[in-house]
Specification:
Helix content: 25-40%
Radius of gyration: 16 Å
Order of helices and strands: HEHEEHEEHEH
Shape: globular
Number of strands: 6
GO cellular component, one term: actin cytoskeleton
Largest sheet: 6 strands, mixed
Strand order of the largest sheet: 1-3-2-4-5-6
Family: Belongs to the actin-binding proteins ADF family.
Strand content: 25-35%
Organism: Salix koriyanagi
Protein name: ACTIN-DEPOLYMERIZING FACTOR 2-LIKE
Structural class: alpha/beta
Keywords: Actin-binding
Distance between the termini: 32 Å
Number of helices: 5
Length: 153
């Protein structure tokens, strides 16, 4: 556990330095909460929001480990863009418990054009900050990320 703590702080320092060099900053908390989801399974999902005034990505919502996929989708605004990660648990055909970390770029058709452009242009850089994403989904309406879509990936 001590090694994790040291790596965690080194990474936080590197993250802070990387953010200073780019246009859309990523708040250190974004990466730290993602590491907790990945390594400790502290959260089921994380919803991220771009704060345009501060020009940075922040954590908007954290989902408790017991929350469902329906709780996750309900936490996304109907007409605003967001980034999100979801830790999906499943059983393989061999009856082995596994999980996949999904990155979801949520840009509903009803969101503002400016917002869609900002989220689209910042996505790849933000996603690179989250080391350990296994599947990426782009969704413009709820049917593009329903549970059947997740299971098929």
């Amino acid at each position: 556990m001590e090694l994790f703590s040291v790596q965690f702080h080194i990474y936080a320092l590197q993250l802070h330095q990387a953010n200073a060099a780019s246009g859309m900053a990523v708040h250190d908390d974004c990466k730290l909460k993602f590491l907790e989801l990945k390594a400790k399974r502290t959260y089921r999902f994380i919803v991220y929001k771009i704060e345009e005034k501060q020009k940075q990505v922040i954590v908007e919502k954290l989902g408790e480990p017991a929350q469902s996929y329906e709780d996750f989708t309900a936490s996304l605004p109907a007409d605003e863009c967001r980034y999100a990660v979801y830790d999906f648990d499943f059983m393989t055909a061999e009856n082995v418990q596994k999980s996949r970390i999904f990155f979801i770029a949520w840009c509903p058709d009803t969101s503002r054009v400016r917002s869609k452009m900002i989220y689209a242009s910042s996505k790849d850089r933000f996603k690179r900050e989250l080391d350990g994403i296994q599947v990426e989904l782009q969704a413009t309406d709820p049917t593009e990320m329903d549970l059947d879509v997740i299971k098929s990936r």
